[in-house]
Amino acid sequence: VSLFIAPEEAQVEAALRLKAPVIELHTGEYAHAAGEAQLRELARLSAMAELAARERSQPHADHSRAEDSVRPVAAIPQVAELNIGHYLIGEAVFTGLESAVRRMRELMDAARA
Hints:
- The structure is a single chain.
- Helix content is about 60%, strand content about 15%.
- It is an alpha/beta fold.
- The chain has a 4-stranded parallel beta sheet, covered by helices on one side.
């Protein structure tokens, strides 16, 4: 079971009470923000991923919509998985699926290094 929720403490705590083994944090607010607002959203994502992991729920994230927004989310150590298939398929229209996946994988690996 995976619950797709906003990175808000009340929602994470509710998911933990339900003993959700996976919590998928929505990154839409982060992906659409800029400047200081984006940094605040990233901090919120990081804090909620840490809370989930500390309480033994595996945090995932999704909806990071482009190469420029995926690195900071991928760098959050507790995030076990990024669900970005929609972006990859859209990018594949222009670059091919293999190229799109390879490029995103390189970005995620660099963020974790």
